[in-house]
Design brief:
It is a single chain. With 75 residues, this protein is of the alpha+beta class. Helix content is 52%, strand content 13%. It has a two-stranded antiparallel sheet with strand order 1-2. Keywords: DNA-binding. GO terms for molecular function: DNA binding. It comes from Alkalibacterium olivapovliticus. This is DNA-binding XRE family transcriptional regulator.
């Protein structure tokens, strides 16, 4: 099963600012808590594909610009 991981948290924070968002305002726009969004951006949590799409769309980017799929093997 694949999970989504953040590519470059610095880039996403730059794009937040360039698009006029704070972490708090983007979290409200994509309907998650500020703490959860921060965890996603720091690589501590994996976003759902829907959340990744919402984040990317709000920042006028494609999902692949911010996230990559990581395969996880369960034994």
């Amino acid at each position: 099963m694949a999970t989504l991981k953040i590519k470059d948290s610095n880039q996403i924070y730059r794009d937040l600012s360039l698009n006029g968002y704070s972490l708090k305002s983007l979290s409200k726009k994509v309907d998650v808590t500020e703490q959860y969004l921060s965890s996603v951006f720091k690589g501590k949590r994996s976003p759902s594909p829907l959340l990744a799409k919402r984040i990317s769309s709000e920042l006028n980017k494609e999902i692949r610009d911010y996230f990559f799929a990581e395969e996880s093997c369960k034994s």
